[in-house]
Please model this.
Amino acid sequence: MKPQLFAAATLLASMTLGQTAFAADCAVDVEDPFALEAAAIEEIYACIKDDLAAGYATEGDAVASAYRDWTVSSTRPAVAGAHGNRLLYTFANDIAAEQYLKYADEGVTMPVGSVLAKESITISAKKKAAVPGPLFIMTKGEAGSVPETNDWVYGGIQPNGKPMKFKQSFCHDCHIAWEAQDMLAYPLEEFRLAN
Model:
């Protein structure tokens, strides 16, 4: 098995294992998350949001314990296609919020100390339920601190509060597609909140 394929399989397995610890019983009557209507997504989020926050914070991670007090970037979670076709909801800390919520297409440079936390919800066709996915985290470091990722450090917290383990390239190899936006993918345009 190629190293990249093995790393991807390991990450997906860890994300799946972590989902079982705090899986909420939120029924979903579609198998494809892209088929969900707005009202269904809002119902899912209302059902699962407390489990997300409680699960991520279980092990005391600083970001996982604080992100819900940050600026939310969209009106609701949405499926963008990245992160395994999960419903995603992004929060920006005070340092990141002003620049991030401009949703600029070019020339973006996020300030050092910017942190973005992205909740995720998996639609399980097997369980016919919405279950917590990982909390994905991006942190902007000092210039030159991590040149291979444009000074971003990628992390994640499983739904049971345990940190995810993966190579930085696993995330960065996808985020490089948004190099002009300082590696940032934004919420779907129709759901964005502006500052």
